[in-house]
Every structure is written in structure tokens, then in C-alpha cells.
Amino acid sequence: MQPDSSILILPDESDQMLVSLIRAYVHHTSFDAWGAASLNDWKILVEKSIRHRITPVLYDIVKTIDRCPQGIAGRLKRDYLQNGVLNARRFHIFHELIADLRKQNIPVILLKGVYYADYIYKNIALRTMDDFDILIQKKYLNQILSLLFNRQYRFASQKITKHKELYFNRSYFVSPQLKHFPTLISPDGDLGLEIHCGLVPEDSSIQIDSENIWKRAVQIEDNVWRLCPEDLLNYHCYHTGITHLFRGGLRDFIDLVKVLDHDQDRIEWSAFVKTVRTCKTERCVVMILAMVQEILNVDIESEVFKALEAGAFVGRFQTEAMCLLFKDSQAVRGFSKDFIRFWARSGIVHKILMLFRILFPSKQIMALMYPVKNSTIRMLLYYPRRFIDLLRRYVAIVCKMQPANSYLMQTVHQMNQLEQWLLGSIK
Description:
The protein is mostly helical. The chain has 3 domains: about 35-225, no CATH class; about 230-325; about 335-420, no CATH class. The protein has helices spanning about 15-25, 40-50, 55-60, 70-105, 110-120, 140-150, 210-215, 230-245, 250-260, 270-280, 280-295, 300-305, 315-325, 335-345, 350-360, 365-370, 380-400, 405-420; strands at about 110, 130-135, 155, 185, 190-195, 220, 225. The chain starts with 12 loop residues before the first helix and ends in a 5-residue tail after the last helix.
């Protein structure tokens, strides 16, 4: 992958500078444009790196730049070291869990950050993470959960492990509307764990077959696997576009460049095209690959775009995706997919039906959210609790969603239109 002379023009100069730095970083070239940068420019750049979740990477870039102000370099170094220490604690806990799963002969596939940090970046301090994700076979879900609950793991939605007895002797499942089991937190609070039984929700129009994923997986340790290169690239594009809706920032695109660099001699592009077509992720894949090519000057096999009919690619949606990628995500970070879809609905009847579904999920789903068995009358008491929890979460956001706030209204409709187009719901 070689950089070319193309220039990406962004409306914000600090975004432009950050992208230029990352381009130099991923292509291992020098960067000499800091002569006129003021201390305030540096401060803005650091804030941008936080928004894009790449502060440790920014430190790795600027540690060799002599003109970096000492205070800025010191702050970046502290953030880098703190991330390294936190990830070291997380990986220690995670490796203990993997050892227990290995004893029970339960295979796992490492997903996203936990794989990238250890095997792609090869420096766990460089990759920021919110949680660790693993893919398992559905038949092992209750066995793994029993092990975790015995280790005092708790649901992330519950601040303490009260009612622990309710965690046991139950048959758990992953909701068809979700990709993974509700997040579990280690006893010390350091590690968040998301257990996937599939890579997409069961009711999604995207079709990524778990059985074939396991057949193609590549073993990296005893009972530990990674996605094959073609599945990894496909899933990363899906996750960046449809799951994150480009709110993951430039970190997702740095991940992608590193994946392409790491697997460049392993990817079979014809097999990749076949996988993308089978999974119906053509729009998402074409968009992400086109964006990484434009933003970071990464060469993508031209035959891939031809085979995936890139001519049908809708430029307007790529423009919207670029806007979301570089837009300040603080205002939209709290927007869940349900909130976006609800607010973007045009008809009052559709809004009411959707609100009813959100407020009154099935008892089985409620039992995953609150410490109560779905077979008891006490379950009914938790529906008012859910209403209060949703009110606390969204009241501040809803208050901002007034017609006068055109920025948030426009962003929500933008995100909804983009998601629907990526899923193939609109032309």
C-alpha cells in the first residue's frame, strides 16, 4: 500500500491536519508540516484524537516530532501509558478466562479490539477499547455464563451483584434483535465482555452465517481462533458502517488499514467478493473501502469495486457518511439505534407501535435486563422501572431534539437514512 499525491479537502483545518498525520503514520513516511502549528492547534488536535479514539496512536506519531510542545507530548504520553496499564489488566483477566474455557474445551473466536490490539497492532497500549468481544457457538452460551457468574461477573446494567442467585439455573439466549448477550463486567470493573453467538442480529437483512464463519476460521492458539481474512474484512466494514454508523471515528479506519497490511498476502479477493455478495453487504463494503481509499490514500484492488458493481454506489450517501465521521459525536453519542429509528419515523402510528415495543419487551428480554425470573409476578413490577430507566437516559436528549435544533434533527435523519440505505431498505 503506497500513498499517492491525492489531497482530501476537509472543512476543518484540524481534521485536515489529523488526517495528514495519520496518512504519514500508516504509510511510514515523514511529516514536516508543523512549522506554523500553535499551542492551540495542538490542543485542538488532542481533543480531535479523543473524539476519534486514537490518542495513543497520536502519541506514537508525535513522539518523534521535535516541534511538539512539551506539555502536549506529556499529556499524550500519560494517556498512552494509562491505556497500556488498563489494557494490561484487562488482558490478564481475559487470559485467565480463556484458560478456563480451554479446560472445558470451549473454542472462541476473538473479535475486533481484543484481536486487533494483540495480533494486529502488536502493542496493547496503542488500541483503545470499550470492551472485549468473543464469538462462540450457541450451544456453549449457558456453560460460559455459568462460569462467568461463578467468577462474580455481573450485568453491566446492574451496579452491584445483588440477587446473584437469580443468575443461575436459567436458560439464557441472545435476543434476535441484538448481536450479542448483554455486556458482562468483571468483579473489579476493569473488563467488559460481550459474548456473540453470531456476527449480526438474527432478524437482520444482512446474512452472515455463523456455521460457515467457524468453518473458515483460522486457529491462532489452542482453542482460540480468528476470523479468516475475507470474513474479517467483511465484518469490519459491516461493523464500521452499520453498527457504528461511522461514529467510531478514524480508529475504525486505522484498524482497517492495519488489517489490510497484516493480511495483504492472505486475502483472496475473489473469495472476498463472493463472501460479500452472499452476506449482502455490498453497499457497506464498497462505501468503507472507498472511504479508506479517499481518506488515507490506501490502494484497494480495483477489481473488487468492479465485481461489487461500484458504479451503483450512491455518492450522496458517501458524503453523508463522511459528515458523520468528522462530525462532533458528543451530541449524538447517546443515540441508540432504536432512538434514531423512532425519531426518524414519520407517522404517529408507527411511532406509537415502536414506542410500545421499546417500553414493553418480552418477559424473556426483561429477565436479561433486570434481576428477576420471567416466570414470577414480580416481573410486572419491573416494567415501570424500565420506563423510569429510559426516561433518565433519554430525557436530556429529547429536550434537545426540538425543531429549533436543526443540527440534531438533521443528524438523526441523516443517520437513519444512511443505515436504511446500507441495509438495502431504500434505493
